[in-house]
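Q: How would the structure tokens look for this protein?
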Amino acid sequence: MRILNKISLVGVFVTSGLLAVGQCTPDPEYTTQGIYPNTDQGLPSGVVGEKYDQTITVIVPKDTNVTLTILGAETTVKVALTDITVTGIGGLPNDFSYDCVPTGCIFPGEQTGCMKIYSNSVLTDSQIGEYPLKVYLESEGKALGATHQQKDTLLGYTIKVDKTASIGSKTKNFGVSQNYPNPCSENTFVDLLSDGSTVLNFEIRNIVGEVIGHQELNRFSGNRKFEIDVSSFGSGTYFYVISDGESSVTNRLLVYK
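A: Here is the predicted structure in token form.
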């Protein structure tokens, strides 16, 4: 009996934030297979003068349904996943690397791991641009008493390197970037754009919504870069809220120690 199979890989990867070079920690907020953020949400941008540091958390399912061609007829069967391996990432900016936990980027079925994409030094003007990525994958699984292997390429992620952080959320009077790096362990930065018409309030809240930090920002016009000291925060998910009394923007901030 000849079995031709195709195992779909692109639905089992997950993204969150990373720590030191060579180590990463899966985001505990996510417990099911998928991509967090998914390719529609995308990876955060890098900013000139800062290092890039981002984690991909991998949650591999126990099994997956695939269509096999058996004796000329297509049949859907359940394949028990042995592992999924990241064999390479194409399109990374110059001086970028990646590491995994487990070592070797071999992620067993029904297990959680992570992969870290990072720059080896601070980003420079020469790296400004957009970099579409190709994540090369190989999977192995068992079905109908046989071992099956499949190669695939995950598309849809792009790393963008900008001179300044992208102002992603805008209201009538101000705009707010996603903090960078995110996740962070000591300090992180937020770029604000204001028309100067109002005072801005800046709050940090924990996962249950309690305000654990507050600062009133003096009026300013144009772009400003603000530093957030998270050295006293425990690992976890936080939120920063910027408001002007009329509108507000809330973004998620991840701390890993």
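Residues 3-162 form one domain.

The longest strand covers residues 73-90.

Upvote if useful.
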